[in-house]
From TrEMBL:
Protein name listed in UniProt: Uncharacterized protein
Keywords assigned: Membrane, Transmembrane, Transmembrane helix
Domain of life: Eukaryota
Transmembrane found in the keyword field: yes
Transmembrane intervals: 41-62, 83-105, 111-135, 147-167
Length: 205
């Protein structure tokens, strides 16, 4: 009896390769630049904090120059020490943000994020202590007249400080989420598939 010839089974993969040809997929790694240069970022931070310092110092200088009668030296010193606190605070925060930006590896930028968030609480503490001087206590009206320009300077300086802090925190946070490759801080985009491949995609996760 003649043997039946069983047709050879062809896998879908083999059939696909034989009909349209072998599709060669490639993994291409391109180094990409950071969203901005580190020098530009540091310069922007310094300018914002220096502007806040300038506004506070100018308004405080005008207020000190125009003395109001009826306030003792100790009362003036109390207000001055409160202002001195915020000036030192701004300088320290500015220096630390610049230092963290330069010294921290990109994968550890969340440290900078937590720092910028935490220092906001100290700034809020100063705002409460400073304005409490002009709301309650003795000689409130005279204190307001003495530091009238400094009081109104808050309208510009405080939003500037909070805005700069928010931007810094978001930059640190976004950089910490980017995936570094190899040993440096270089960031890479990984493209799956050749240049002409219909399955080409970009993975930045």
């Amino acid at each position: 009896m003649p043997l039946l010839k069983v047709p050879e089974l062809i896998s879908p993969v083999s059939h696909f390769k034989s009909t349209i040809g072998l599709i060669k997929e490639e993994v291409i790694i391109y180094p990409i630049k950071k969203p901005f240069e580190i020098v530009d970022w540091i310069a922007g931070v310094i300018v914002c904090y220096d502007l806040a310092l300038f506004i506070i110092l100018v308004s405080l200088g005008i207020d000190i120059y125009s003395r109001v009668d009826g306030l003792s030296e100790s009362e003036l010193d109390s207000c001055m020490y409160t202002m001195l606190y915020v000036l030192i605070h701004i300088i320290i925060v500015m220096i630390l943000i610049v230092a963290l930006t330069i010294l921290l590896p990109q994968r550890h930028f969340k440290i900078g994020y937590y720092f910028t968030i935490a220092q906001n609480f100290l700034l809020v503490f100063w705002i409460i202590q400073f304005n409490k001087i002009f709301i309650s206590g003795n000689k409130v009206n005279k204190k307001r007249k003495q530091f009238i320009f400094t009081i109104f300077a808050q309208i510009v300086a405080i939003p500037l400080l909070f805005g700069t802090t928010y931007i810094c925190s978001q930059v640190f946070l976004q950089f910490s989420k980017l995936r570094p490759e190899y040993d440096g801080d270089d960031l890479y985009e990984v493209i799956y598939g050749g240049e002409d491949s219909s399955t080409k995609k970009i993975d930045l996760s």
